[in-house]
C-alpha cells in the first residue's frame, strides 16, 4: 500500500497493562496485563503495521497503589484535606447528584481512594505506547465498579448462567442493578468522549467485546449528523452470544441491542453465535434479515433493523502462532519440559489449564478423569492429570468458593481412590503460572483436555495445536486434543476429538481412544487441526479488510445512517427554550403498530407524560395524524383540552383549547369516494383479513391481518387500479404501514406544520387566514420536536428543514447556543431508513422514554444518552468533577510546593 496509512481506532475494555502508582516516588509501574492474549497480540501486530495506523482506546483498569508509609499517608491526607477544602465552596458540596454519590474526591477520607494529578496522567501517557489513549475513570473509591454490570450481569448470562456470578444486594427498587447499569452506560460514554477527541474522518472504529455494547450507538449520538452518518464502526464479540431464550432474560436486553446495532458490522466467533444474535434482533427489534454466504463460505446476514442495514457475520479469532513458536521453543523451556517429563517418567501426561470459573468445566473434567480410571484399570498409575486453574478477579465470590470446595473434594477423592503414597493421579495447581511454564506443560503433554461447558473461543486450544505442530527433541509433535463441543474453538478445530463434557463416560472413552492412536493417526489429525488454526495476523487483516470494504461501499452508495437523537442535547435545549412546539404523529410514534387499528390506544404512561407536557405554559402540543376526527376526539380531544389535533393528514384541524374542528377539505369534491370504495371492496373480497377504514375524507384499505404474500400482492394490484383514475380527481394514493390510503392532494401534514410554525406563538389559530410570513422570529417557536414514523410524516420534516434553511438566511444572527433554531425533526424507526429527518428514535418505547426525560419521569442514564465527562472521567461540571480537580490541585501543590505547575486541564 502506498500513501497514507488507514487509521484504526481500536477500542478495548482495558489497555494491555497492569498499572501501579508508586506513591512514595510518584512513579508509574507498568506491567503487561495477563489474559486476553489473542486480542492483545492483535494490537501488537497492528502497532507495527505498514498498512494501518492504530490508535488504541482503553480504560486504565484498576490502578494499584504501592509503597507509601502510614505516617506519610496521614501527613499527606491532613495537608490535602486543608488544601482541598480551601479550594472549594463548602456550600456546593451539599448538592450531590445521587449518581455521583460514590465519587467524592476529597483526599483523606479513604485509604483506598486513588488521587491522580494531571501531571501524573500526562506522565503515564508518556510512559506507555504513544498511540495508546487511556480512558480515565477516577471518580470512585471502588475502581472495580466499572466492571460490575459487564462481569456480573452480562458475562454470566452470555455463558448461560442465570444467577449473577456475584451476589448483589438489591434494594426493593433494584437500585444496585440500576447503579451498575448507570456505571456501564458511563463506562461506554467515557469511551465515546475519548474517541470524539481523536476521531478523524475516514477512521475505522473497531470495538471489542461485551463491556462496550452501547458504544456504537453512543458514537453516532456523540457526533454531528454529518460525521455520525459516515462513521464506519465494526464490533467484534469475543464471548458467546446466547440463544434468544437466555438473552431475553437480560433486563436491559433492548437497550443493549439498540446500542450495538449502531455498528455497521457485528462479528462473532462462530456462525451459531451470529445466528443467535440475529434471532434476538428479530424478536426484540422486529428486524428482518437475509442470509447469504460470504467470500469464505460462512453465513452472513444482512440485517435490516427497522428497515436498516447492518452486516452480521462470524470471524473466529486466531493466535499469534509465530510468537508462540518463538517463545515455546527456547533452551529454557526445553529444560522445563525435560524436568516435567522426568518427574512423570513412564506416565502419560494430560494437561488442563483453565480460568477457575464454573463455565470452564473443571468439575466435568475431573469427573471424566475419575470415570476413565474406573473404566480402564490398566491406565491407573500410568496417567497423570496436571490441572492448572488460574484464579479470576471473582476469586472470593460465593460461586467460586463453592467451586473450589467441589474441586478440592473431587481431587482428594480421585487421589485417594487411585493414588498411593508416591503418586497422586491429579495434580491440581490453583495459581497463575508464567508463560514459559505454561508452554512447557503444553509441550510435555501427551494429551490436552478441554471440557468447558461454555466459552467464546478458548484460544488455549489453538495455542496447544500450534505448539504440537512443531517437532522437537522433546517429542512434542502431534499429541491429540480432546475438545468440548461447547467450546467456541470446536467450530474451528473440527478435526480434534470433540466431546460432550457432560457425558463423562464418553469423555473417558475418548481419553482411552486418544492414547491408543498410532503415530500415523496422530500425525494425520495434527496436520488437519493445524491447518484449521488461524494466525492472529490474518484474522486482524481479514477483519479490517472487510471493514474497509464496508466503508467504501457506504461511500459509493452514499448510504446515510440517521444518527440516534442526542437526548442530552435535546434536554438542554428544551430547558433553555421558552416557546416550545411539539408535533406528534400518532400511530407508530406515540403507540406501537398493532394488528387492529381500533386497538392502538394510548397507554396510561403516554397520557401522564402528555398531561405533564401540556401543563407547562411554555409548551404547545399537537397531534397530527392520519386518523379521523372521531378517533382523535375519543382518545385525545375529550381527555386533554390543551392538545391541538389535526386529522386525516391535515384535512381537519382542532385548535388548542377549543372543541371545534375546522374542515379544510370542505370545498373539495368527494364524488371520487364511491369509485375508490368500489375498487377497494373488490380487492377486499379477494383478500381475506383485509378491510376498509372509511374516514370522512380518506379511505384506507388495511391488509395487516392477511396472509402476507397475498396481502402484498393485492396491495400492489389495488394501487395499480387506483392509479388508473385517481390522477383525474387530484388524489394521492399512499402506501402506509400495511395499508393503501386515498386522500385529496391539496393538503398534507407539512402544510399544517408550516401554519403552526409561522404563527404568533401561543395565540389562537385562524386556519382560514393566509399565513403571515413576516412574523419576527421571536414570536415563533424556539424549540420544535417533530416525531413521526411514516412516509407522510416526511412532509413535516421537509417543511421544518425548509423553514430552517430560510431562517438561516434571514436570521443568521439569531441562532441558539447550539448554532441552530432548536428544530428536531425525528423519524421513529431505523437509523438506515430513508428520511429527511435529522435523527431517529427506534420505536414508540424510545419516544416515551425521551418525552419522559423532558418531563422528568425518566433519568438520563435509564434512557441512555451521551453526557460530557471531564478528562478524569467525572461528569463535566458536576460536584465530583470540581472536587476531583481541587484534590488534584491540592495534591500537586503538596508535591511541588509551588503553584506554577498546576495544569489547567480537566
Ligand atoms: O398518521 P398516523 O397517526 O401514523 O396514522 C396513519 C394510519 O395509522 C393507522 O393504521 C396503521 O396503524 C394501525 C394500528 O397500529 C395498524 O393496524 C395499521 O396496519 C397501520 O397502517 C390508521 O388505521 C390509519 O387510519 C392511519 O392513516
Ligand atoms: Mg404514523
From TrEMBL:
Residues 86-112 are annotated as: Disordered. Pfam families: Glyco_transf_20 (PF00982), Trehalose_PPase (PF02358). The lineage of its organism: Eukaryota, Fungi, Dikarya, Ascomycota, Saccharomycotina. This is Threalose-6-phosphate phosphatase. GO terms for cellular component: alpha,alpha-trehalose-phosphate synthase complex (UDP-forming); cytosol. GO terms for molecular function: alpha,alpha-trehalose-phosphate synthase (UDP-forming) activity; trehalose-phosphatase activity. In the C-terminal section; belongs to the trehalose phosphatase family. It comes from the Eukaryota. GO terms for biological process: cellular response to heat; fungal-type cell wall organization; trehalose biosynthetic process. It comes from Maudiozyma exigua (Yeast).
